[in-house]
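Subject: design request, 159 residues
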């Protein structure tokens, strides 16, 4: 009896957690996800794009305000987001060109491009691009998962 009940409440939980992903905002990247060549996160005036020249660049409209400085090292790279919270730029051969070096271990993580210009990894691995406006209303990178959720960002388990 206990097993079916646990299973059904787990299913419900998964449904509630997974359902929003179908309409996932394009300013959020979850662990296990990636930005392929030319793909981007967009929020308001800000775009974080994995350029085909392998530079990961954060733009305020047309002005670059942050980059990984990896342009020209290869072409058609991927920004990968590992389940340990590490952001890694991989060339097509699978070699790392850049990493945020911020793995906090396996756990819940999410990368959010906020509309104030800050790109933030929440979770056990914490990182941000340092490009937020001074009056940012969003929690900084060193805040907890609960605070990320308070900012309207759902964490996903084992995603
Ligand atoms: C984008 O920038 C313009 C010009 O600075 C500003 O007026 C506008 O409010 C910004 N949009 C958002 C969504 O922040
Ligand atoms: C990550 O670590 C590597 C190796 O120590 C270093 O070369 C690189 O600059 C670091 N990346 C960042 C974004 O600090």
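Subject: RE: design request

Done. Sequence follows.
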């Amino acid at each position: 009896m206990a097993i079916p009940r646990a299973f059904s409440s787990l299913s419900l939980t998964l449904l509630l957690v997974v359902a929003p992903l179908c309409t996932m905002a394009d300013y959020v990247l979850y662990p296990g996800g990636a930005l392929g060549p030319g793909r981007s996160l967009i929020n308001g005036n800000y775009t974080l794009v994995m350029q085909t020249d392998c530079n990961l660049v954060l733009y305020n409209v047309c002005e670059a305000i942050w980059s990984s400085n990896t342009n020209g090292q290869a072409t058609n790279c991927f920004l990968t987001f590992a389940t340990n919270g590490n952001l890694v730029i991989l060339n097509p051969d699978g070699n790392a060109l850049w990493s945020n070096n911020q793995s906090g271990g396996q756990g819940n993580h999410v990368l959010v491009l906020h509309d104030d210009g800050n790109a933030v990894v929440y979770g056990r691995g914490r990182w941000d691009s340092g490009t937020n406006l001074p009056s940012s209303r969003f929690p900084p990178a060193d805040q907890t998962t609960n605070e990320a959720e308070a900012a309207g960002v759902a964490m996903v388990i084992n995603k």
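The chain is about 15% helix and 30% strand.
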